[in-house]
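Bumping with the actual sequence this time:
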Amino acid sequence: MADSERRIVEGSALGAQQKKDLLHRLARVEGQLRGVQKLIALADQPGDCDAVAQQMAAARKALDRCFVQLLTGAMRNQSAQARDVDEARASAASLADLLDKFA
């Protein structure tokens, strides 16, 4: 399903623009991974592994950047929507737990 066809739901976790930006980044990562697959399929000489490793590292870094963008977007959105300080703290604690669990 293309981005233009994908229905973006407005919610309290992330704004529509934040979601659109993340989906765009992930589409680029997907393209990088398809490129890595082609490089692996065409690898013929030992030196080809350097190119594959470089592209894998780039894809991994791009995916890590998506993860950071997801969490920072959620922090901004959820803290802006908090009704009071306690709710903002609870939201921050929940996001910190996600960071601790997955980073």
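The tokens above came from a reply further down the thread. Residues 16-102 form a domain with the Methane Monooxygenase Hydroxylase; Chain G, domain 1 fold (CATH 1.20.58.1000).
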